[in-house]
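Lab notebook: predicted structure, single chain.

Context: the supervisor wants predicted structures on file for every construct in the current expression panel, including those that have not yet been purified. This is the next one on the list. No modifications to the sequence; it matches the entry in the shared construct table.
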Amino acid sequence: MAFLLYDEVDYILQALTIAERARLAGSQIRGDFLSEWIRKQRDDLWENKILEALCIIQNYKMLQKLGCNVENEKMRFVPHSPESSLFVNCVRKCLYHVCESLDSEALKVLLENVVQDYSHFRREQKLETFDPEYMELNILYWASHGYIR
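Prediction complete. Output recorded below exactly as produced.
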């Protein structure tokens, strides 16, 4: 969800990278990215952005717990439509759907292809990779290094 909410690529990449490395080291501590993100918001649109992100990731139980009518929210945000987004970055929404549509093997192939292509893009720099199951982390890394925008 942090992938959809945070606009600051470098910040959320660093926070998620630290969390991923802690997870790999066996830590049970989880970052509270949502509360932190809410505290940083300076406008009244943050609630709508959370609702849209919840629709995109299909967390309908949470929407119900928040008192929302799921069908109304799905009609409002059109979560499966890649060409529309009201509050979430449309490109991130599309990339999220691409990641979710690929199985584990296809994610590995995508990651391998990007690493190979990046070697042609920036010969002097090796592209760091993360677990393909957390492809959003890889995408943030690519964005922070200018491979995608």
